[in-house]
Amino acid sequence: MRAMKVLVVSDIHGNYEALNAVLESAGGWDSLWVLGDLVDYGPEPHVVVDVVRGLDPDLVLMGNHDYAMAYGADCMCAEEVRDLSVYTRQFVSARLLSKEQLEWLRNLPRSWSGVVGGLKVFAAHGSPRNNLFGYLRPSLPRSELLLALTPSMYSLRPRPVDSDVVLVGHTHAQFDIRVDSIRVVNPGSVGQPRDGDPRAAYAIVETGNWGVELRRVEYDVMKTVRKLRELNLDREHLSRLERILVTGRL
């Protein structure tokens, strides 16, 4: 298989302006991988779904917010943003997404594995252990990282997935780390970064040598804010959503 330039994105969260900036900044690609969470928080989940579908990605995974919206379930997200999630799902995503779009979200896979560029790759929104809801953070102790990389929620001992590379999203923070023999990459969040940098985050993977470049791009944050304001949301929730977008922090 020839070497490819892969655009890897995650956690777009209804922010079309950020997604568009990433697509323009990436400068073309051979393959597009989307690691989940197209909806909630942002003002245009319906537009994001249509744009992603129109790009015909080679991989689109279900995120915890996609799951919650499609199935009317709890997103099980971090406690400090749970109310924002519930609020925007009810008053934005549920109002703007069509039945056909919800059906498409409902049928997204929760994980993927395969061989790319000679390496075994595993991808999920959360972690191998918990595809939708598991948080895999570099700050975790090694023992907890190894357990998060174990592809069974019922295993009591770490038995990491048989992969060379693991791709995840969910934390809204970029990283590229090695846990023993496994390289773990998170492209960060396109639409709602929470690592102190409000620029849209993504990753470029060159499969020939498995080079990974973590990138950021500025976008018109205030345009996204104005779109949120046009939805006539509750002042308190709107203020918090604006603050996250502007500062890149919770």
Kindly describe this structure:
- The protein is α/β, with parallel strands linked by helices and 250 residues long.
- It has one domain: Metallo-dependent phosphatases (Purple Acid Phosphatase, chain A, domain 2, 4-Layer Sandwich), CATH 3.60.21.
- It has helices spanning 16-26, 45-54, 64-71, 82-96, 99-106, 142-148, 221-229, 235-247; strands spanning 5-9, 31-34, 59-60, 111-116, 119-124, 165-167, 175-179, 182-186, 200-206, 211-217.
- A 5-stranded mixed sheet has the order 3-2-1-9-10.
- The N and C termini lie far apart (42 Å).
- The mean pLDDT is 97.
Please give the structural blueprint.
Elements: E1 5-9, H1 16-26, E2 31-34, H2 45-54, E3 59-60, H3 64-71, H4 82-96, H5 99-106, E4 111-116, E5 119-124, H6 142-148, E6 165-167, E7 175-179, E8 182-186, E9 200-206, E10 211-217, H7 221-229, H8 235-247
Parallel strand pairs: 1-2, 2-3, 5-6, 6-8
Antiparallel strand pairs: 1-9, 4-5, 7-8, 9-10
What is the name of the CATH superfamily?
A: Metallo-dependent phosphatases
What is the number of independent domains?
1
The sequence of SSEs as H and E is EHEHEHHHEEHEEEEEHH
Residues in β-strands, percent = 15-25%
Mean pLDDT: 97
